[in-house]
Amino acid sequence: MSTFFTLHPVAPFRLDYTVFALRRRSKNNVDLWDGQRYTRLLVIDNVPVKVVIEQKKGLDEPELLLSIQSERHELSSNRITDELEMLLGLNRNLHDFYQITQHDPQLNHLVCQFKGLKPPRFPTIFETLANAISCQQISLDAGLQIQNRLTEFLGIRLKEKEQVLYAFPQVEAVANCTASELKKIGYSTHKSETLIRLAAAIVADKSSFSSLENKSNDEVINFLCRFKGVGRWTAEYVLLRGLGRIDIFPGDDLGAQNNLYQLLHLDKRPDYKKIAEITAQWHPYAGLVYFHLLLQKLHEKGAPN
């Protein structure tokens, strides 16, 4: 049984741009896009919930049609829509960001090209950490390929006529894995142990991880970096993609370094310190610049127009 709702994001909004910033590659088997509709299998109270979103009205008066399909009729629609609003940044008002970039010749064209992009977030801290660890020190394509296998191995699935939908694995499922099991699907020993260690820590102390929402950027970084296998890049990745801190530009991100290098026509690829100097002028929206640069790179590879 499907239930339908209408959502009205804060304008301007483009579903396609926002979904591509979230999924990053077409091979992503959790965040699905068919050219018009975004589909994801969420897990709410251990129950799989299929959500499908389509944009019915455009940029300046956006309207989304949301379809929810679940075997549990009593699931709160408010809880599901709240999660989607966070996931896709539907209620983020970026008026001040557009005002700042309108007068910045380096950014104005880029921001106008992808107007309507909102900052996406992964639904949980664990999913954010897993995405970061999967892609540590290897290409994004390779990292997502391995992560797809993790999803197929441990994720709740929903079989349909033409496809199988996968939810991102629950933290408990990963905590109960062995390193040898994760190595079989492509993770290194180090990454396998890190994923299991973090999953077990979250299961054992959920309150400490859930309270990260209320901590400062430095406090979050200090907390996460206590865990073996988590460094500055991973912690900043969590701040931006897991906690929605759009003032954060992950300065150790090689792809982001290259994107800035190309945008600003720099003499050499900027290091962490140089990126901090450059992005200070865009405070508190450096993370939004990160997403726009990412979308530009995706656009070059055939992302939506």
From TrEMBL:
BP term (GO), one:
DNA alkylation repair
> Sorted alphabetically, which keywords does the UniProt record give?
DNA damage, DNA repair, Glycosidase, Hydrolase
Protein's UniProt keywords contain Amino-acid biosynthesis: no
Q: Does the keyword Transit peptide apply?
A: no
- A GO CC term? cytoplasm
Q: Which CDD domains match?
A: ENDO3c (cd00056)
Q: Which domain of life is it from?
A: Bacteria
Which reaction is the catalytic activity of this chain? Hydrolysis of alkylated DNA, releasing 3-methyladenine, 3-methylguanine, 7-methylguanine and 7-methyladenine
EC assignment: 3.2.2.21
Annotated InterPro entries:
AlkA_N_sf, Alkylbase_DNA_Glycosylase/TA, Alkylbase_DNA_glycsylse_CS, DNA_glycosylase, HhH-GPD_domain, HhH_base_excis_C
The record's top EC class is hydrolase
Q: Which residues form the HhH-GPD domain?
A: 136-294
Molecular function (GO) terms listed? alkylated DNA binding; DNA-3-methyladenine glycosylase activity; DNA-7-methylguanine glycosylase activity
Give the similarity note: Belongs to the alkylbase DNA glycosidase AlkA family.
The name this protein carries in UniProt is: DNA-3-methyladenine glycosylase II
